[in-house]
Amino acid sequence: MSNLEKGASYYLLRSYSVLVDVGVVAILAVLMSIAMQMEGLTSKGEDYLVLVLYVVLLGLTFIQSGSMIVDLTAKDKLSKRIELFAASGMPVKEIIQKYSVQIFRLSSVIPFLVFMSCYYFNDWTMGFERIVGVYISILAVSFFEILALNIAVLDVKRIKLFKNVLFFGNFALIYFISMSAERITELLRGKSLAIEIVIIVFNVFLCVILAAFDILKLHRISNESVIRREGQWV
Predict the structure, then answer these.
(1) Predicted TM-score of the model (pTM)
(2) Cα dist from 232 to 1, 160, 165, whole Å
C-alpha cells in the first residue's frame, strides 16, 4: 500500500462525518440482516430475498462511498490539496485511482458482513455459485461507480449539493426498488427469468457503461485542467 493510500485510509477512518454515516449504515445493516430472516420477508420467496439483498448491498455501499468521496476527494479539491499534488507533478489520475481503491475497500466491509449473515442464516436453494456471482457483480459495479463519482466530483462546483443528492438519492433508490421488489419478481417469474441471472447481466451492462465513462474521463484528465477547476461548499 502506497503512502497516498495509507494517508487516505487514515483520514477517512478519523473523519467525523464519515464515521457518523458508517454508524448509520451499520445500524441499517443490522436491521436489514434481521429483517431478511423474518417470516414476513422469507415467505415472499427466494427471488424476492435476492432482489432485496441486491438493493441493500448496493445501497449501503453507495451511501458509504458517497460520503467518503465528498470527505476525501471533494474536500481535497476545496482545500486545494489536489491542486498542490498536481502542481508538484503527481498525476491526478493516479491520485483518483488510489483514492477510489481505498474508498472501495472501506465501503465494502459492512455490505460483505450483511451478505455473509444473510447467506449463512437463510436456507437458500439457489446454487452457491449463483449467489456468489451476484455478490461479485455488485462489487464490480461498486468499484466502477466509485471511480466514476471520484472523477465527476472534480467538475462539481456545488459540493454540498452534490453530497446531499448522493446521500438522499441512495436512500430513495433503496426505498423505491424495495417497495417494487414484489412486482419485479412476479414479472420475472411470469417470464421464466431467473432473478440472479437478470441481476448479473444487468450489472455487467452497468459495468461496461461505467468503465467506458471512467476510461474516457481519465484519458481527458490533466493536472492543468484540475488546477483550473474550482468548487464551493454550497
Answers:
(1) 0.89
(2) 31, 8, 15
